[in-house]
Design goal:
Elements lengths: L1 E3 L12 H4 L16 E5 L26 H10 L9 E5 L9 H10 L4 E3 L9 H9 L2 E7 L5 H8 L4 H14 L3 E8 L7 H10 L4 E6 L14 H14 L5 E5 L4 H9 L10 H14 L14 E2 L2 E5 L4 E3 L9 E2 L5 H7 L1 H7 L5 H5 L10 H8 L21 H8 L1
Parallel strand pairs: 1-4, 1-5, 2-3, 2-10, 3-4, 5-6, 6-7, 7-8, 9-10
Antiparallel strand pairs: 10-11, 11-12
Helix pairs in contact: 7-10, 8-9, 8-10
């Protein structure tokens, strides 16, 4: 299965990878040896001006982008990881701004590298584009929807009329038989619209809802994120949303995995959902009625640098697109060598964290957002300041006292 993702990178994005490799259980993949996802920022060019854009995309490409031949060599190098080959997610910017994009997809596919593409909804996505993508074997497409109204979505995306263009693209893709994933970046501007977006996901028959949380990088520095306690409320709400027939995943909020464990096992945790959860959950039931299925909350035990690696437009390698800590450059060093032998990545994969994340009983399944730790503390191994959970080994503070402390 070839797949389209959105242009925001994530350590939780799995996009039916098990189907790509014959439904191989993820626990059989040795993350010390190979990632499951390699994100490549193929260009900075994009026609949108999203207020939270990690890439700070611009209308024209920057000097230094990998040439077609360099890109071919990079794609070929992914075979050195061995099988199962990682999924190559070609992102940006907007990869459709590259004139050689179809050649790149075809080259990867011919060499056995599963390909994902991360386009923007712009005039570049036409019926001809969709037809070509389908001919190349793409099965799943991800489209970003950041508001339930044109006012909210377009204030974030920066283009008038973009909301209805996005809805129409989603509807067309579903009609064409694609498995459609809708992606939403959560911030202060749209958090109260989450139940309405969930309703759109269900009514448009999208298969997956992937919810992204802000990291203060790129243009995201100027966007207002929600508070730690509100993060927890949203995690509880997303679990509820996962019982309406579509898969729910999170990006840069790996503590969703902890909440999923709690909810599925009826664990009486210290944290009790607050006002925001009550408001969101009530509206969800008002819009969609009672839950219709068991929870489809998915959580893969990967994180930035563990099962995930990111290559920038100029070949620089990072743990993820949200974690701008350079590890080397593919023009001068093998991506396989960087992934397997860089000490920072080794520490991330071994869960050698500082602060609460280092002593947390959920540090392997969760591990906190490495990108957010770096953004706030300049420490890729630091604790995640958006998580309110206090590990069992350190209960001198309550979650609420800790929340007050970090604010």
């Amino acid at each position: 299965m070839l797949i389209l993702s959105i242009k925001t990178e994530t350590s939780e994005t799995f996009l039916n990878y098990q189907q790509r490799i014959g439904k191989m259980p993820t626990q059989n993949i040795n993350y010390e040896e190979r990632p499951i996802l390699v994100f490549w920022e193929s260009t900075k060019a994009c026609l949108l001006a999203c207020k939270h854009c990690r890439a700070e995309a611009i209308k024209n490409p920057l000097p230094g982008e990998l040439t077609t031949e360099e890109a071919f060599r990079f794609i070929d190098s992914l075979r050195d990881f061995g099988k199962p080959y990682p999924v190559l997610i070609i992102t940006g910017g907007d990869p459709l701004m590259r004139n050689d994009i179809y050649d790149l997809i075809e080259h990867a596919s011919k060499n056995g590298i599963p390909v994902s593409l991360a386009p923007s909804v712009t005039p570049k996505i036409t019926h001809e584009t969709i037809k070509k993508i389908k001919e190349l074997g793409v099965k799943t497409i991800s489209i970003s929807l950041d508001g339930a109204t044109s006012k909210t979505h377009e204030s974030i995306r920066g283009i008038q009329g973009h909301f209805y263009s996005t809805i129409n693209i989603i509807r067309t893709l579903v009609t064409e038989g694609f498995t459609v994933q809708i992606n939403t970046a959560v911030m202060r501007d749209n958090v109260l619209e989450l139940p309405y977006i969930a309703s759109i996901v269900k009514n448009l028959k999208a298969a997956i809802w992937e919810v992204f949380f802000l990291i203060k990088v790129g243009r995201g520095i100027n966007a207002e994120e929600i508070s730690p306690i509100e993060y927890e409320d949203v995690m509880y709400f997303l679990y509820d949303a996962s019982m309406y027939g579509f898969i729910v995943r999170t990006v840069e909020a790996p503590f969703f995995r902890r909440v999923v464990i709690w909810r599925k096992n009826n664990i009486n945790a210290d944290y009790k959902p607050g006002t925001l959860y009550t408001q969101l959950s009530y509206k969800l039931k008002e819009l969609l009625g009672e839950p219709i299925s068991e929870s489809k909350a998915q959580s893969v035990g990967t994180r930035d640098g563990k099962g995930i690696i990111f290559v920038a437009y100029n070949g620089d390698v990072y743990p993820s697109g949200f974690l701008p800590l350079p590890l080397g450059n593919i023009r001068t060093k093998s991506i396989v060598d960087i992934y397997r032998n860089n000490q920072i990545l080794k520490n991330i994969r071994a869960a050698n964290f500082n602060g609460r994340c280092g002593i947390c009983e959920y540090k392997d399944i969760c591990g906190g957002s490495r990108a957010r730790a770096y953004s706030v503390y300049k420490d890729p191994l630091g604790e995640d300041p958006a998580c309110i959970y206090i590990p069992k080994s350190n209960k001198s503070l309550t979650p609420y006292q800790h929340h007050i402390k970090i604010l």
